[in-house]
Design a protein that fits this description.
The chain is an all-alpha fold. It has a single domain, classed as MetI-like fold. The chain contains 10 helices and no strands. Helix 3 crosses helix 4 and helix 8 runs antiparallel to helix 10. The two termini are 36 Å apart. The relative contact order is 0.11. Keywords: Cell inner membrane, Cell membrane, Membrane, Transmembrane, Transmembrane helix, Transport. Belongs to the binding-protein-dependent transport system permease family. It comes from Rahnella aquatilis (strain ATCC 33071 / DSM 4594 / JCM 1683 / NBRC 105701 / NCIMB 13365 / CIP 78.65). It is found in: Cell inner membrane; Cell membrane.
Length: 269
């Protein structure tokens, strides 16, 4: 008697699809969205000034790539976000780990961070221009303000999630604080810290575009502003889609690095 395999019901809490099925569903969703876009623009339901045809957007991006404008904008934006995000991440890891481990640093850090992180980043834009001008330092500062204070709290939370029994075991074995920090706390917290960095990278892209929208002469955000002045909707939408692609690529790179760097982490995917 042959046994039939029961169909996988994904509408059950905690049940996940296979990798192949997951990719298939994701790809199907994007195809449906692009088909809806194409139907809406070709039927004339939406004027091109509001939403141009997908082919028009593609041809415009190809044209910008051929004359070098696209690559110059990507280069400028990648440089800014790489430098600013690296500085913010290093600072947040050092301060967050210390605050998560030691009460003195927690009292010194957490109230101030909680206070500043509720301040809107947009309000700092005119001040950063006044302080540093409109060069790349101003862009670094905006990205730093938008990511650092959130990162610190997420790093502190990751450190707190390290089981206290692990630290207690280290003390039982006679390990000094320094060894407990580097051999127990950090290895236990690093997967969570990496997740925090991956999530905050999305915020960094947002603040990068904000900084380039307001005061810049190059970059993806700058090109969007220039295109708005001349009603070049195809360029605006093309650059928005490009930002989504760059963000997705950076996120997938960090996911891949996580699997390599933290093989000891047995969390469910």
């Amino acid at each position: 008697m042959s046994s039939r395999r029961k169909p996988l019901n994904l509408m059950v809490i905690g049940r996940l699809p296979s990798r192949k099925l997951f990719v298939g569903i994701a790809v199907a969703l994007f195809i449906i969205l692009f088909l809806a876009w194409g139907l809406a623009t070709r039927s004339g339901a939406i004027p091109p000034i509001f939403l141009p045809k997908l082919t028009d957007v593609w041809l415009k991006m190809v044209s910008l790539a051929q004359d070098g404008t696209l690559w110059s904008d990507i280069k400028s934006s990648l440089y800014r976000i790489s430098i600013a995000f690296a500085i913010s991440s290093v600072m947040s890891i050092v301060i967050g780990v210390l605050a998560g481990c030691y009460g003195f640093f927690k009292a010194l850090t957490e109230p101030l961070v909680d206070f500043i992180r509720y301040m809107p980043v947009v309000a700092f834009v005119p001040l950063t221009i006044l302080w540093t001008g409109t060069d790349d330092v101003q862009k670094f500062l905006i990205i730093w303000i938008g990511t650092f204070f959130q990162q610190v709290l997420m790093v502190i939370d990751a450190v707190k999630r390290v089981p206290g029994d692990f630290v207690g075991l280290g003390r039982t074995l006679g390990m000094p604080d320094r060894k407990i920090l580097f051999r127990i706390v950090l290895p236990g917290a690093l997967p969570g810290i990496w997740d925090a960095l991956r999530i905050s990278l999305g915020w960094a892209w947002t603040w990068l575009v904000l900084a380039e929208l307001v005061a810049s002469t190059s970059g993806l955000g700058y090109r969007i502003v220039v295109s708005q002045r001349f009603f070049q909707t195809d360029t605006i939408i093309g650059y928005i889609l490009l930002l989504g692609i760059l963000g997705l690529i950076s996120d997938q790179i960090m996911r891949a690095l996580e699997r390599v760097l933290f093989r000891y982490n047995k969390r469910r995917a």
